[in-house]
Amino acid sequence: MDYFNAFWVGGLICALVQILLDKTKLMPGRVMVLLVCTGSILGAIGIYQPLIDFAGAGAAVPLLGFGNTLWKGLKEAIDTDGVIGLFTGGFTACAAGVSAALIFSYLASWFFKPKMKE
């Protein structure tokens, strides 16, 4: 049942975002920023963590989950380090994910020989 819940929740999030992209004139970069900010807000008001507990990776992997991760990192850092946690918490919480994305995309560029668009 965990796989099913992850599949339909993640699929619903992706479908809603695709509808947003198709029905508005928002550029993909702005939609991505909107998703991260929305995930942070939903995490701050306590709505997103129960969704992650229910759907697992279906809710944690999309950009909404990234925003929630940033919020959790900020909250932990502020609780332990005070005001300086505003500047360090987000980096600490997402460092592994961002590092993995950079490393794997760099490795992929070795295999697939990317070309500049003209």
TrEMBL record:
It comes from the Bacteria. The keyword Cytoplasm does not apply. The keyword Transmembrane applies. Keywords: Membrane, Transmembrane, Transmembrane helix. It holds the Pfam family SpoVAC_SpoVAEB. The chain crosses the membrane at residues 6-24, 31-48, 54-71, 83-112. InterPro entries: SpoVA (IPR005562). PANTHER family: STAGE V SPORULATION PROTEIN AC-RELATED (PTHR38450), STAGE V SPORULATION PROTEIN AEB (PTHR38450:SF2). This is SpoVA/SpoVAEb family sporulation membrane protein.
